[in-house]
Structure formats: structure tokens, C-alpha cells
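Q&A log
Question type: sequence-to-structure
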Amino acid sequence: AGSKLREVFDKINNLLSGKPVQTEGQAVSVTQHPQGLEFVCYKLAEKFVRHGEGEVSFHHDSAFPIAVVLSGIWELHPRVGDIFLAHLHKKCPYSVPFYPARKEGTSMEEYQRMLGYEVHDSKVEEQDHFLKRMSGMIRLYAAIIQLRWPYGNKQGAHPHGLSYGWRWLAQMLNLEPLADVTAMLLLDFLEVCGNALMKQYGIQFWKTMFFIQKSYIPRIEAVTSSGQMGCLSRLKNFVQKCLQAEEIPLPKGILTPSFWRT
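Response status: OK
Response body:
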């Protein structure tokens, strides 16, 4: 509910603003310790990224309520946004976007961690689980860049708005594609913020969609084995439908004005 989201936002904002906040039956304040504020910014940013790789990866619609709160907090407390991006880029290098290359002397285990895989006791997480987490984080990022907290003053620009999404898309299309990962990330990103990018960039956006269909999808196909075609097929269908309809559908779960009256 919109009212519940406002409560969550106010509590986080009050905590970061140095006001006492009730939690688990006691009042806490960042002023109680010299590094209190820095610690809270760090842990809060880390928690938002965890929501991306956990909650959003399983429930795609949850990207929007989480993103709108973070967007508003980022506007009022830029430090949280900076640390959020640092956590996000470390957990999901594809959010930069960046495909780390293996350097000489780097162990396979260390390299897999650099690629975003979780490695415990030399056991690497399964590919499906890895892809799900990366998908959740990209979806959260794609939601953040298009949303603003509706009760802010909106005098300044969005702290990390659509221009960053446009840049992400351009940089992504300049990278050599990877099997599995590239098709999934592009599909997630376009499903979540394609509509907003279309409205903002118009003809330039459609040129990019045409480039994806004619030039980039064949390049993904060239590195994809027959057993990894699922996500690529969905990306192809999505791009084709959008180009035919000359429209990108609104993402599922987007927060409508009526949501804020609940």
C-alpha cells in the first residue's frame, strides 16, 4: 500500500536525518556514535542491493516500491546512492556494464567472484541461481532510473535518472555479447524501463531497437549454444513485437497514481 511505503520512507529518512527512530522497542539515533551515520548509509545501501538480488529476482513487481523509496532517499541523502552504486557494481558488474577479464595470476575462484558468482567452500553457485540474482539487480536498477519519490520537492534533477539508463544501453551494445547473460540483461532492462526510454528518446530509441534486432541479436546468437536459447528467443520476440507495434508496453507492477491513495 502507498501509505505503508510512506511509513517506511519516513522512518529511513528520519534515521538518516539524525532523529530518534523506534525499532524493536527502543529508540536509536545515528548521533549515538561518531561513525553512526556512515555505518547506517553503508548497511542501508547494502540492504537495497540485497533486495534486488533476493526479493526482486523472485517477484519482479517488487522492483518498483523498493526503487521508489531508494530514489527518494538518494535525492535527500546522496551518500546512500553513491554507496548503493558501489555495492551494486561489485555484486553485479553487468550494471556498470562491464565484463571483467581474467588477469594473469588470478585464480579461477577469484575470477568467478569478479563475474558476480557466489563461491562457498570452492563450490560455485548454479548458473540458474546466478542469472536470477543478476536479473533482479538489473531490474531494480532499471526501475530506479525512471522513478521519483512522489512527495519530494522535485526542484532538482533526478539523482540518477534516465540518461544513465540510456548510457547503460549504449555501452552494453558496444560490448561483445556473452552467452546467457547478455540476452537476459537486455530483456530485463527493456521490459522495465523501455517504455520510459521510448518516451524520453523517441526516434533515437527506435534506431537502437532496430540495431538490436538487425545487428546485435545475430551477434548474441553466434556465441549461444542450442541449450542456452531460451532467453535469447524471449528477447527476439520482445524486440520484434515492440518494433511491429511501434510501442513498448508499460512494465508490469509500475506504480500508478491510484497506488498512492491506498
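Response note: The CA atoms of residues 14 and 155 lie 21 Å apart.
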